[in-house]
Amino acid sequence: MESLRDAYKILGVPINSSIRVVREAYRKLAKKYHPDSNPHEPEHSHAMMMKINDAYEIIKWHQKRGIWVEERVYSPYDEMLKRWERERAQEREAKRRSEERRQREQEAFQRFWERVTLERKYELGDKKYFDSIVRYARAFLSFYYGKNLHNFAYRERPYGSRLYSEYEVRFNRMLDKGRQLARLSKSERYRKKSNLVLGFLKTFIDDTKRIYSPIIERRAQALRSFEKALYGSDKFIGNYFTHENTDREQIIELFKKSLDGFEYFLKAYPESSLIEYAQSRLGVLEFLYRAFIRD
């Protein structure tokens, strides 16, 4: 490599010079030391031309093959240049990553917006199915309490028993139709709401079949407490499905009162044989709250 270093020195150019710079330096020196330009020193001119030509050929040969002299002696400027290049490279990398992140966020937002738009479109179509289920529920619950079918004594009479049997058949048909409408729902919101309403209706009709016998609870106080709670819950459910324009705060207050009666009964008579009937009615109230009252 010493001969290559010497070649750059002879031509008077830096060791990292391009072939264009080397060529220009060679032509300048060749013109200067050509024998025709120095007729009084032919031997010196000839010797210099030999050195210039050799140096030029050596540099061309090495550069053609991609061989370069190693970096020059260290200087503070070199370190500053390297640090600047590293910082520029880091900035370019940070900019690239920021652009990729922005692109990913934009794509994610676009996908989110498409889902929201599609879900909203489904909701507008599914609302009519849900409203139909709610209308069926209100009509059948209003009929149930309007015809006094919640009165067990009335249902034991021939006419009441026949009316309840017919009601149960129609109620189950309505329930099946409601399930069909719920299956048509494509939006998650109305699918959940429809299933809650259907769950309440199923729990309600099952509870109506649980006719308790007063004789299974021989304690008069426990029986009165249970029947008072049962009456309060029937009054609340009947009013809720009969009057649609009741104030929300008033509905919540009536709902709490219907729960208070069962809470007192369960605490006062934990060993009562009517506990399972009370728990069944609490399940109905819970489904009613989740399906209609809770936001």
List keywords for this structure.
single chain, 295 residues, mainly alpha, Helix Hairpins, Methane Monooxygenase Hydroxylase, Chain G, domain 1, rod-shaped
Please outline the helices and strands:
Layout: H1 2-11, H2 19-33, H3 42-64, H4 76-146, H5 152-155, H6 158-184, H7 188-208, H8 220-242, H9 248-268, H10 275-293
Helix pairs in contact: 1-3, 2-3, 4-6, 4-7, 4-8, 6-7, 7-10, 8-9, 8-10, 9-10
How would you describe the overall organization of this protein?
The protein has 295 residues and is mainly α. The chain is 79% helix and 0% strand. The chain folds into two domains: 2-64, Helix Hairpins (Orthogonal Bundle); 113-293, Methane Monooxygenase Hydroxylase, Chain G, domain 1 (Up-down Bundle), CATH 1.20.58. It is built from ten helices and no strands. The longest helix is centred in the middle third of the chain and has 71 residues, at 76-146.
In short:
This protein is mainly alpha-helical and 295 residues long.
Whole-number average pLDDT? 85
Order of helices and strands: HHHHHHHHHH
Number of strands: 0
Major β-sheet annotation = none
CATH class of the largest domain: Mainly Alpha
Structural class: mainly alpha
What is the CATH topology descriptor of the largest domain? Methane Monooxygenase Hydroxylase, Chain G, domain 1
Helical run tally? 10
Relative helix content:
over 70%
**Fraction in beta strands:** under 5%
Uncertain stretches: 71-77
Shape: rod-shaped
- Tally of structural domains: 2
